[in-house]
Specification:
Structural class of chain B: alpha+beta
Largest sheet of chain B: 7 strands, antiparallel
Strand order of the largest sheet of chain B: 15-12-14-13-17-18-16
Radius of gyration of chain A: 21 Å
Number of strands of chain B: 18
Helix content of chain B: 25-40%
Number of domains of chain A: 2
Number of helices of chain A: 11
Number of strands of chain A: 17
Number of helices of chain B: 18
Radius of gyration of chain B: 23 Å
Oligomer: heterodimer
CATH class of the largest domain in chain A: Alpha Beta
Strand content of chain B: 15-25%
CATH class of one domain in chain B: Alpha Beta
Distance between the termini of chain A: 40 Å
Bound molecules: flavin-adenine dinucleotide
Distance between the termini of chain B: 18 Å
CATH topology of one domain in chain B: Uridine Diphospho-n-acetylenolpyruvylglucosamine Reductase, domain 3
Order of helices and strands of chain A: HEEEEHEHHHEEHEEEHEEHEHEEEHEH
Largest interface: A-B, 87 and 98 residues
Amino acid sequence: MHGSAEMDDSTSLLEQVNQALESATPLRIQGANSKAFLGRVTAGEILDTRSHRGIVTYDPTELVITVRCGTPLAELKQVLDAAQQMLPCEPPAFADDATVGGMIACGLSGPRRPWSGSVRDFVLGTRVITGLGKHLRFGGEVMKNVAGYDLSRLMAGSYGTLGLITEVSLKVLPKPRQALSISLEMNAERALLRLAEWGQQPLPISAACHDGLHLHLRLEGGEGSVAAAHDRLGGERLDAAYWADLNEQRLSFFDEDQPLWRLSLPGNTPRLSLPGRQLIDWAGAQRWLKSDAEASFIRQVVEEVGGHVTCYSHGLSDSPFQPLPEALMRYHRNLKQQLDPQGIFNPGRLYAEL
Amino acid sequence: MNILYDERVDGALPDVDKHALLQALRMQMPELEILHQQEELKPYECDGLSAYRTTPMLVVLPREIAQVQGVLRLCHEHRVAVVARGAGTGLSGGALPLEKGVLLVMARFNQILHIDPAARTARVQPGVRNLAISQAAAPFGLYYAPDPSSQIACSIGGNVAENAGGVHCLKYGLTVHNLLKVDILTVEGEHLTLGSDALDSPGLDLLALFTGSEGMLGVIIEVTVKLLPKPQSAKVLLAAFDSVEKAGRAVGDIIAAGIIPGGLEMMDNLAIRAAEDFIHAGYPVEAEAILLCELDGVEADVHDDCDRVRQVLEQAGATEVRLAKDEAERVRFWAGRKNAFPAVGRLSADYYCMDGTIPRRELPGVLKAIADLSAEYGLRVANVFHAGDGNMHPLILFDANQPGELDRAEALGGKILELCVKVGGSITGEHGVGREKINQMCAQFNSDELTLFHAIKAAFDPSGLLNPGKNIPTLHRCAEFGAMHVHAGQLPFPDLERF
Ligand SMILES: Cc1cc2nc3c(=O)[nH]c(=O)nc-3n(C[C@H](O)[C@H](O)[C@H](O)COP(=O)(O)OP(=O)(O)OC[C@H]3O[C@@H](n4cnc5c(N)ncnc54)[C@H](O)[C@@H]3O)c2cc1C
C-alpha cells in the first residue's frame, strides 16, 4: 500500500549489532547522513538504517502512525498529507532523503514547536535494539501509556547513543483548517514585547520569527479565529514557503560564512547583545546566531540568562553541545553504561564521555 | 497473588533498627517532624488504593528541602528503603509504605514559588495541589492544563511521578507535555536539575525519563510547569446513544472530521445512572452510553466546531444531542463525569478502578469482552472512558466484606488489563503500575524489556532503596505469576510472549 520499497530488515540490523558487540566494534548509526554535521565527529563502522523502511501501520482516526527508521521523512509527510494530517512539530529534514530514525535521534523541531510541542512530545512508542543485543519494544500505539519507564521519549534527541531505534509510533494531528502568514514591521525589542503579551492571550499564532526588520507570524486554526486575528494584527501577507525556508535553513541569513550557533532560551528573554547577526525564532525561545565570537563567550552570555548553546558548524567545537554540570554528567554516564555497556552506539557523538 | 511486598519474590529488604534510625534522625534534624507510634502511623498505611495497607516503620514530614536531603542521606547510609508520598491520592498503590521503610511525605511543600506571566510558567513546590496552580495563575488569564479528576487534592509532585492525565489530554497533553523543569534529589541526596527554563536542554532527556517514574529514580523537590492562556470559550455537547458501539464509532468520526476536542469522554449506562443519582447533572438515564464533547478555543471556531460535531454525532446515530446552554450547565455536565468514581462508589460497598488503554477502534470488542467477564465473575462493571485517547476506566463493584469478593474483583481486573495488552494497548494510561499492576507488567513486557527497566533503575539507584517493589516486577515475580496462570489451567493469551 505504501510503496514498493517497504521492507522489514530488522533481523539483519540485529545481526549487525550483535556482531559489533561480539567484536567490540563501535557503530556509527546513519540514515541519509543529513544531520551528520550535528554533534561530535565519531569513528566507527557505519550501520546504514535505510534498508529497514516503510510505514508499518497508519489509521488516521487513531491519530497514530508507526514507521520504520529508514523510511524517508518525505514519505512520512506525503502519507500524512494524503489524509490531511501532519506531524505538528515540523521536524526539519536538511536533505531530501532524510530518514525518520535520524529525525527521532536528533529530536529537532520546527517553527511550530513552542505551541505544538517537540518531536519527543509526539513519540508514543519505539522499538530499539539495545546494547545487550536485544530488539525490544517500549511504549506503544496508544495515546496514554505509563507502564514502566518512558524509554521511548528518552530516545528522542539521544543522537543514537543509547541504542538503535528501529521503529517509532508517533501521534499525528489533523491539519488546521486555515493558515495565513503575515509580516509586521517592527524592531526586535518591540517584537519580543508584543510576543510576550500575545502569548498570554488565546491567539492562534503557530510560528513567530523576527529577522531584524520584520516580525513574521503564522496564524493557524479555524476560519473564524484566523480571520479575527488577522483583522486585529494587520500586516502584509507573507508567502507560507517562508516557514519551510526558515526550518530548512535556506534563508539568506544562513548563507553567510560565519559559524552558526543555536541559542535555546527561557521564554521572555530580552534581546541578547552578542557580536554577529541574530535571527529570532520560536517567539524568542530559539535564536540563531552567526558569529565569530568565542564559544566560551557565547555560552557564558546565554548561560547567565538560563539558556544553552549548540554549535551548528561542524567540527568547529569539540563540544558542540553545551557541557553538562558534573553531577548530571555522572548520571548520563551511568545510564550509558547500563544501556550500552560496551559503548558501541555512536560513542562520543553527544559528549566525549558518552 | 497478594500484592503486598513479598521479600521472597520482590527481593530481600535490609533489616532496620527502628530505634537507632529514629535516634539518628532526631540527632541530625531536631526540627524534623517524625511519626513513629502505631496510632500516628495508621493514617499513612495506604494511598487511594485503600484495599492494600502496610504500616510504615516511620513517617517523616519535612518542611525544608534540607531535611529531605538529610533524610535521604541518612537512610542511604543506614540502608533504609524510602517511599515518597505526595497527597496519597494515587490509585495504584505507588505510595504504599513498607514495614521496613520510611515514608517521606512531601505534602507540606505547598508553596507556589513564582508565577511568570510573560514567560507563562509557574515554579512550585512538589506538594502544591494541581488545582492550586491554575487558581494562582487565573488572575493572569492563564492555567495549568492537565486536570486529573483528583485535582483538588493531588499534588504536582505526584502528578509528575505518575505522568498524570485528565479529561483534556488529547488536545493539551499529559503532565510530561506541560513541564519545563524538575528538580530532584537522588537516593543519595544529590541535587539534579532536569530540563530548564528553555524549551530544551543539553544532554539526554532525563526529564522525560523521570516523568512517570513513580518515585523510583529520585525525589521531586521542585517543578516548573508551562501555563496556557485560558481558552476564550468552551462549550460542551452531550450526546446520547442507544448502544456503546455507536458511541465508540462516533468518537472516531469526530476525529475523522479533523476536530480535536478539548475533552471527549464516554460513560456507559451504569455510570450514567450512578452519576445522575449523585450529581443530578441532567444526564439521560435511559441511554446506553453518553459522550461529552468539549470544544474550546476562540469563540468563532468553537461555534463552527459545535455545528460540525453536532452533525457528526447525529449522523453517527445519537438519539439526542444537547449543547450545555450556559456555563452553569457546562460545569454540571463535567461535574457528573468528574465525580463518576465516587458516584459509582455509592452503588456498592467497594469499587476497584482500572486504567487500561486501547486503540480506540478496539472499543466495541473490548467492551463486549468486559461485559462477558463481568457476567463470568458475577461482579458489576461500570465504564467511564477518556474516549478521545483510548483510556478506559472500568469500575468493578464488589464488597470486600464478602469472602472472596476482593480476590474476584482483582482477578477480573487482571483479566481486563491483559485484554488491553492483547489488543495492542497498555495496562495503565495514567494511574501508574505501583503495586497494583505489578503482575500485569509481566504480560505487557518480556524479560529482556524488564531487564532494561532494571538497568535504568540501577543507573540512578543501584542499591534499590527508592520505592522498592513498585512499577517494575522482578523476573522472579513474573516467573511465579506466569506459573500461577498455567496452574489455574488457562493461560489467558497463549500467543503472548511469556517466560
Ligand atoms: C477520585 C480520583 C480520581 C482520579 N483521577 C485521576 C485522573 O483523572 N487522572 C490521573 O492521572 N490520575 C487520577 N487519579 C490518581 C491520582 O490522583 C494521581 O495519580 C496523582 O498524580 C497522584 O498524586 P498524589 O500527590 O496523590 O501522589 P501519591 O499518591 O502520594 O503518590 C503517587 C506516586 O508518586 C510518588 N511521589 C509522590 N510525590 C513524590 C515526590 N515529591 N517525589 C517523587 N515521587 C513522588 C509516590 O511514591 C507514588 O509512587 C485519581 C485519583 C482519585 C482518588
